[in-house]
Specification:
2 helices
């Protein structure tokens, strides 16, 4: 008995239908997965903003407690003499980002004058006993817009709203500190209400 095999030829690639099915499956998976990554990025930004606000507000409150109720930025951080360290300069007046950064990121005395060291190395006297209140001598960025600019107001208005003009808004009379962003987060909440 003779067996005959039918030679149908070897298939060298995928058919058009097979490729279309794979492309459709990948498109469906991408439509499901991609929005979840976008949401996690928004959540990370929201979390970073809340964390920065908590740290800055805590530093502002502690500064005010140690300086007789005066909030940082309400007075100049200029220093007549900062022995052995870097003090605040003439441009570090009240209502300036540099003055606020110096008062929260360096050692201060009761008047709010700042210095990079707390005591006189020669005399051993602690001349700047308070602070620092923030880890770095640089004011934190707002993660929503990546800037650290601060708009200062002295109205005492607890209902001050953001205007998207800068990164932060700070009332040196009431001590209120907010993100200067009226845009909405992923949950529909304005950043300036955090």
């Amino acid at each position: 008995m003779t067996t005959r095999y039918i030679n149908r030829g070897k298939q060298d690639g995928f058919t058009l239908v097979e490729l279309l099915i794979v492309a459709i499956i990948l498109a469906i998976l991408a439509a499901i997965v991609v929005p979840q990554f976008a949401s996690s990025t928004d959540d990370a930004t929201d979390s970073a903003l809340r964390s920065n606000l908590a740290a800055i507000r805590g530093a502002i409150d502690l500064y005010a407690q140690q300086h007789g109720g005066t909030f940082p930025g309400a007075t100049a951080s200029t220093t007549a003499g900062c022995p052995g360290g870097t003090g605040g300069g003439a441009a570090d007046g009240a209502g300036t980002l540099t003055g606020l950064t110096n008062q929260l990121g360096r050692y201060t005395n009761a008047a709010g004058e700042s210095c990079s060291i707390s005591d006189d190395p020669a005399g051993g006297v602690v001349e700047y006993p308070f602070g620092p209140y923030l880890k770095a001598d640089v004011f934190p960025n707002n993660p929503v817009n990546g800037s650290n600019d601060v708009t200062f107001v002295a109205t005492g208005d607890l209902a001050m709203g953001g205007a998207d003009a800068t990164a932060w808004r700070f009332d040196t009379t009431s001590g209120k500190f907010i993100a200067d962003q009226t845009t909405l987060d992923g949950n529909g909440v304005a950043y300036d209400t955090y």
